[in-house]
Design goal:
Helices cover about 35% and strands about 20% of the residues. It has nine helices and ten strands. Strands 1-2-6-3-7-10-8-9 form an eight-stranded mixed beta sheet. A two-stranded antiparallel sheet has the order 4-5. Strand 8, helix 7 and strand 9 form a beta-alpha-beta unit.
Length: about 350
């Protein structure tokens, strides 16, 4: 609209001032044309703008002020509130409790040491699909918002910031929300969920499965984003890996549609069973985790901080998945577990 008006004004100036010096008219036209192009360019999201959003969100979530976002803590609630505010700003409608983004998680839950009372929270936003036939099918994009808080000091630092684990995944999900909200609404419904208390055994995902905002059988696929803030030297530069790649046909289909996605190069680590996706997978949902964790020595240490994030890699990783995620949200493809591979 702005560009069209600029060109119109330029044309009026040229033709209405026909008797004036042609050089002046040409100069005015050129100036207006350049102005139009500049305005049009600035109205579109740029790589530089994306990079600033990514870095800004990382610097907040993984800052010392967040005290490591310990599971079930007030600091985890601050992280949840921040992520909810970002979804609001992006334009993703809430799907938590009472018209909010926060799903309050309270009750008795399974822990590795047994059952106990716990309170945590999930953050949920929902972008409803536009296609009459596909809008009830749901693509679930997730990350976990907590980390392990304050712990034993290492080199004088006792704040376990959790930049890679998993502020990086949360920021990736926010970026997917921005793109999907900015463009035409997808055919399928997309849920954006940030789970609480993953580090203590997945109490957030347990509650989500008991109180889903949509029927569980409507969830076609879940992609969890976990630790994408650094490259993994075990795969090629620019590549991400998918846990349980050989368990379903989801990974190969995403790769066919542009994802630089390969099989998990660390099968002995059993990462497929070590994130929120596994709880959903046990319910029959094709749920897998995308990562580039290269087994770095900063895992669960205070040195997992923003200073060690490779932002060039992280930005490229997120950008490489935008197209495949959009395809999945607009496709009628339904991932399936391969024979004998369902958890």
């Amino acid at each position: 609209m702005i560009a069209a008006r600029c060109l119109s004004l330029a044309a009026e100036r040229v033709y209405c001032c026909f008797t004036k010096n042609m050089t002046i008219r040409a100069g005015i036209f050129s100036f207006c044309t350049l102005l139009c192009l500049a305005l049009t360019a600035t109205s579109q999201p740029s790589a530089t703008h994306d990079a600033a959003e990514i870095r800004g969100a990382m610097e907040y979530l993984a800052s010392d002020a967040m005290q490591g976002r310990a599971s079930g803590s007030h600091d985890e609630l601050l992280a949840a509130t921040y992520l909810a505010s970002q979804l609001r700003q992006i334009g993703i409608p809430p799907a938590g409790d009472d018209g909010s983004y926060i799903q309050n998680v309270s009750g008795e839950f399974n822990f590795r040491q047994g059952k106990k009372q716990w309170n945590t929270r999930n953050v949920i936003g929902m972008l409803k699909g536009r296609d009459p036939k596909l809008k009830d099918e749901v693509i679930l994009l997730t990350a976990h918002l907590d980390h392990i808080g304050i712990g034993e000091a290492v080199n004088g630092d006792n704040i376990y910031n959790g930049a890679d684990d998993d502020a990086s995944g949360c920021v990736a999900v926010l970026q997917f929300a921005r793109v999907l909200a900015h463009n035409k609404a997808p055919k399928r419904t997309v849920l954006f969920v940030f789970f609480g208390s993953e580090e203590t055994g997945g109490q957030g995902n347990q509650y989500f499965l008991q109180h889903p905002p949509v029927p569980l059988h409507n969830i076609v696929a879940n992609l969890e984003f976990e630790m994408i803030g650094r490259p993994d030297s075990a795969v090629k530069p620019g590549e991400l890996w998918l846990t349980g790649y050989d368990r379903s046909n989801l990974g190969p289909q995403l790769a066919r549609h542009g994802a630089k996605l390969v099989a998990d190069p660390h099968p002995k680590q059993q990462f497929f069973m070590r994130s929120d996706n596994y709880a959903l997978a046990k319910q029959g949902i094709v749920a897998q985790t995308i990562s580039s964790f290269g087994l770095h020595s900063d895992y669960h240490r205070p040195s997992d901080d923003v200073e060690h994030i490779d932002f060039t890699h992280m930005e490229q990783a997120i950008r490489s998945m935008l197209g495949p995620v959009e395809w999945l949200a607009n496709s009628d493809f339904k991932p399936q577990w391969l024979e004998g591979k369902k958890p």
